[in-house]
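Objective 1b: paired records.
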Amino acid sequence: MQNPIDAYRLDILSFLKHAYPHFSDLLRTSIPCLSFFFTDKTNELNPIMYEPCLCVILQGSKAVGFGKQMYGYTTNEYLLASAHVPATVQITEASESLPYIGLTITFSLEDIYEVLKNAHPDKLKFQKKSDKGLFFDTMSTALYDPISRLIKLTEGTKEDIAFLSPLIIKEILYILVNEKSGYFLNKFAMEGTTSNKIVKAIAEIKTNFSEKLNMAALAKRIDMSESHLYQNFKTITSLSPIQFQKKLRLEEAKRMLSVRRIDISEVAFLVGYESPSHFSREYARMFGMPPKAYLKSLNNTMQILEN
């Protein structure tokens, strides 16, 4: 007899094969918060910045690096990110016959808070200390059911999507809140908790990543001492605030170099560096090659595709 979870998973895979027969890489659907990633190749560890989201593997497996630890997960589990959390990911199981297929559903803290307001208090008990910003748990049929309906809604009308998708997202969050992940979501969404204060700090650094970071002023704005800000920020994100800002700057610089014809020194200044040479050194340290070499590799790839 087929496992009920596998039945949902295989049904979704069948739908995707019919609805998106020529998919590859990243697929953004007609529902803005829902996307898929496909690949038929395993890879090395790649940096990623998670945003508040639910990630589910439909086929294959991957490993997620957070700080100094690696977490492997497959089709039996899900990953929940509470905030913008840096990590590394590696696709560990994928082939041409059975490609890796994963889905991501993003949401806002406001979405979570709306659901938490209607949850039973006993479901939301949590320890006061902060915890890492990633959470893993086992998939359930209760969770797969609304996920399946959300995916199939992508073939609906604009009116159906606009009205129904927010309701299904709330249903998904309601189920998560009433499972083990409830305490995790509560810590990060509820006003006044340490984790929620760090989420605000993360959001502020992300919004103003090109500006000089004033730790004392930031700590005062979120009503926390500098030492507690540093300690809890590193617990949740695995990076210090300065390291987090640097990662944001370099990721944005890489994106700008990829999509715009712009001078390297100008990119350095736009993302907050005062010295192009300092920018190049840090870029090479993060991505394994200086920005000049990265641009050259992009140009070579484009020439190959054009020929």
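Objective 1b, second protein:
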Amino acid sequence: MDRRTALALMGAATLSACATTGEAPRTGPDGQPLPKLYRISSRDAKRVPFRALDAVNALRQGAGAPALALDPQLSAAAATHSRDMSLQNRPWHFGSDGSSPIDRARRAGFRGRLLGEAISETYESELETVAAWMQEPGARRVLLDREARLMGFAFYQEGNGKIWWTLTTGTAPGGTVPGAA
């Protein structure tokens, strides 16, 4: 599958997976339309990481990179960071305690090698966020890193609808990359 096909599939999945409030379009104080709210139900919350994994793996396949598997420790570290970014009210890679992505992965019990982290503050779905990350060179490198075999993915949604997303990638324990040349 080429990159164009992978992006088309991801776009189609985005349209089918989006949930909005069903309200009339909201506008800000300047009269400009605000983003539509993507509310994640408790039922959908368990599906979100798998939809993100499928989207990332479709993009990786299009780029000739091996598929990733969800890792519970990386996902736990991502969940901690998503909530912490909300508390700090800023998207950045350091925790309120000064922790780095590597620190958070270790605290969560991850024994592999952390390769990267992508973060976002948005009102968009997980699939729209993955598509946006693909447009940013640093996040794109994290998603398509050929050494990566594991992915952590989590979010925190505030009451106002804003979502804080965190995606991490890493290698198997011991830093091994099965099948790598």
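Strands lie at 69-70, 114-122, 150-157, 163-170. Residues 72-88 form the longest helix (17 residues).
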